[in-house]
């Protein structure tokens, strides 16, 4: 402080003190902040106030935050889009407490704000706690868009997908479980198995054909623990029934599982050549 006052012992006309103030905020020098504000510079311009707030939040100093929030009503001063920009930065540095604070401010400014992009940012960073914060506050999120984007990103934590699914209404939940399950069978067998254990999804013909074509006997066995009817088991594609596909792939353990279901029709044939599983 004494060194700073040595260089700035009195106010210099037309000198820009904004950078000195931001530096003091960044490095948590509350005495220098008070001296600048009381003796040298009291910011009024919007852009400077925004930078002060942004730096103040990133500093994580309660003392500095309390000091400036006594002098400025940042909730009214800062624009909603600027708060959203700050929120994205906070997600990047995993500042959960300030994320909660900024989300509340944004909701107070506009309760209809769509937080889908910000949720996806947290999901991409595999930040379960911030994702849960969005869901707990019941903010607006395009669940369909969020689930689709999480599925595209192979690094997304499964738990985040489950959180999204569990926040759907009953009709949407069943639909999204089916979408995620069908995608997982093709691209992530372990996730498909976890979905079976967690949700016991209804199995359609698409799910069953993908499972049999995966050559994974454990997946096929798990599927038969779910709700699956004979019409699904005996669906026929161009390549034939699931039994024909398993036979042609020499997946004998899967053939055994299918036959043990007691619902399989061994006489179904390929649409292309007319072959059955027995021929």
Q: How would you portray this structure in words?
A:
The protein has 279 residues and is mainly α. The chain is built from 19 helices and no strands. It has helices spanning 2-7, 18-26, 30-40, 46-59, 62-69, 74-77, 80-92, 96-109, 116-124, 128-136, 143-152, 158-166, 170-187, 189-199, 205-213, 217-223, 230-233, 242-248, 252-260. Helix 2 (18-26) packs antiparallel against helix 3 (30-40) and helix 13 packs parallel to helix 15 (205-213). The longest helix has 18 residues, at 170-187. The N and C termini lie far apart (91 Å). The model has no long low-confidence stretch (mean pLDDT 86).
Give helix and strand order, one letter per element, not per position. Answer: HHHHHHHHHHHHHHHHHHH
Helix fraction by DSSP (H/I, runs of at least 4)? 55-70%
Q: Roughly what fraction of the amino acids lie in strands?
A: under 5%
Kindly name the structural category. Answer: mainly alpha
DSSP, total strands: 0
- Largest sheet composition: none
Overall average residue pLDDT: 86
- How many distinct helices? 19
- Radius of gyration in whole Å, from Cα? 29 Å
**3D shape:** rod-shaped
Low-confidence stretches: none
